[in-house]
Each structure stands twice: as C-alpha cells, then as structure tokens.
Amino acid sequence: MTPQQLREMLAQTLEDGQLSRSERSALRQILEHQQPGGPHLANFRHAAFDLARDVITPENSRRVLDWLEDVMRLLQPVATMSSPSNTAEALFSPGEECPRRIRALLQAAEQSIEICVFAITDDRLTSAILDAHRRGVRVRVITDDEKALDQGGDAGELADAGVDVRLDRSRYHMHHKFALFDRSLLLTGSYNWTRSAADSNEENFIVTGDPRFITPFANLFDRLWQQFAG
Predict the structure, then answer these.
(1) pLDDT for 95-138, tens place per residue?
(2) What is the Cα–Cα distance from 198 to 192, expressed in whole angstroms?
(3) Which of 19, 128, 179, 216 ranks highest by number of CB atoms within 10 Å?
(4) Is the same domain home to 99 and 212?
C-alpha cells in the first residue's frame, strides 16, 4: 500500500470521528501484512497525525483527538499481533462491512491476488483490484462467462487494463466466490462482489489464514486457471 492509499483509508475512518469494529479490523490487517515495527508503522503514525492537523478546529478538537487516540491505541499491540495463519473472521451483509473488508485485503496484498467469483460488478472493488494491478501485484481473476457479459459486469474493464482474466467455457455456471491474498489469507462465502450483495442481500463470507483451507482452495484455483486457458 502506498502512503497516499494509506492516508485515504485513514481519512475515511476520520469522517465520523471514531474507528468502527470493521475499520479497526481492516487497519489491523494492513499492519499485519506490512511488517509492523518498520517504516510502514512510522508512515501509518505520520499519516494519522497529518490528517488530524489538517482538520482539527476548536469545534471538533474533542472528536479528532478521540479518533487519533483510537488510532494510536491500535498501533500499540501491533508488534505482538498474531500471524495471518491465526486469522479467523466472519462478516455479513447488507452494509459496508463486507466491501470495506475486501478493499482492505486488496490494498494490503503485496505479491498476489487470485479472485474466483461468480459476479464482479461493484466498482469500488474493481477500482481496488486495478490499484493492486498498477502497483505490481500479480492479479488473476476467474469469473463466469455469462455474468461477465451482464450489464455492469467489470470483467472486460479488468482485462482491458491488463489484468489476467479467464472465463469458464461451459453451459454451466462458475459459481465459486472466493479469493486468495498472497496465498496467506482466504476469503470465501456466499458473497458476490456486487452492489446488491453489499446493499441489499443477506450474505456472508469468512476470512481465514488456516493453511488447511488455503491449500485446497489454492489447488482449486490452479486447476480452474488451467481448465479455462485458451
């Protein structure tokens, strides 16, 4: 994640003056991925103070300082955080929690992102995928051929930007909904990467770092990637 992306994410949490549970979880995940204790941690701290200085006024000083205290408190246990292998989360929609968590995972990935999702139409997630591609993360996407042609489908936009995209080639649906991040975290559940999933549907996904789940899903992705080649 670049310093500008980090600043933008912190700025979103400052809008209401407090860190929600989902925001705290997303920021913690970024810190875990970016090796806390080094320059990334310093960038995080500097960005928070810069944002506070930019917006603080006599009228909002209490709210801004409370937010800054929450952010600094988040940094304190970072050095002793559990490894990604111990990550175990469950998230539910409708609401902003699911798309916010997916964006955080996309922003935190450093080497690879592998997405195998039936439908991708949420422009907020597509934008985060493209940002990861532009910063050099290897991004591969598998999606359903029929859904890719739906109005609002983003598979074509991703492919046009240079992201590796493959479609299933059968009369049946590629109905999986999972993603792997640096092959150290797995996201899987009922949640399609669409606005309706975020805004209206009752959906869920889990995020886990358990290799007992990551390995079979990684093997499945590799098999489908070869199956849909050509």
Answers:
(1) 999 999 999 999 989 899 999 999 999 999 999 999 999 999 99
(2) 9
(3) 179
(4) yes
The total of other beta-carbon atoms located within 10 Å of residue 176's CB is: 19
Residues 137 and 212 in one domain: yes
Residues 93 and 27 in one domain: no
pTM for the full model? 0.67
- What would the pLDDT profile of 162-194 be if each residue is shown by its tens digit? 999 999 988 899 999 999 999 999 999 999 999
Distances in whole angstroms, Cα of residue 145 to Cα of each of 49, 69, 227: 46, 48, 14
3 state SS of 62: helix
Strand runs labelled E in 11-137: 88-93, 112-117
**CB atoms inside a 10 Å sphere around CB 39:** 10
Same domain, 97 and 177: yes
Shared domain for 67 and 123, answered yes or no, is: no
> Which residue has tokens 């995940």?
29
Shared domain for 135 and 168, answered yes or no, is yes
Catalytic residues: 175, 177, 182
Q: Are residues 116 and 128 in the same domain?
A: yes
204 is in which domain, residue-wise?
Answer: 84-227
